[in-house]
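Q: Structure tokens for this one, please.
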Amino acid sequence: MTKNEIRTKYLSIRNNIENRYDKSRNMSDRFLSLISASNYNIIALYKSIGSEFDTNYLLDRLNYLGKTICLPKILGKDLVFIKYINGDELVKNEFGIYESVLIKENVIDIKDIDLFIVPGIVFDKSMNRIGYGKSFYDRCLANAKGLKVALIFDEQVINSLEDIENTDIKMDIIITDKHTILK
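A: Here is the predicted structure, written as tokens:
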């Protein structure tokens, strides 16, 4: 199957997952337990849309814990991360993704981000990822030093992805509602 065929198939599967909120909260708690003893202070997250892992609870918990959170913003072909303070205005971009309003002083250097929570449609047990097809995260993460984590539903993990390119960035950790996969 091509990447587009895989995207279509797994978006359909993800759209039909039941108990999404409870599973998302469980994954968030497991993620927070995993990083609790670590020194990850600047965390890149995204505001979930559609049938994605629900990031709202995690966003609230990270705010409560005093972590610096940054959300992605698309600028041309680049992805930058903007510091997010609870209650900041978010606007939908042309892809339907919620973004912070661009304020240059709030842009966080990609090399300063300790941990990235990365969206995607399907992942494999070798930590490969197929995203939404625009390569924003792959280009951005190619220059990042921070830990790359996917929080996804178990149905989004398959044994092996075939159509992977050397520009596709691998995850370091995948947390599902049933498993944790480490690199």
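A few notes: The CA atoms of residues 122 and 130 lie 5 Å apart. DSSP finds four helices and 13 strands in the chain.
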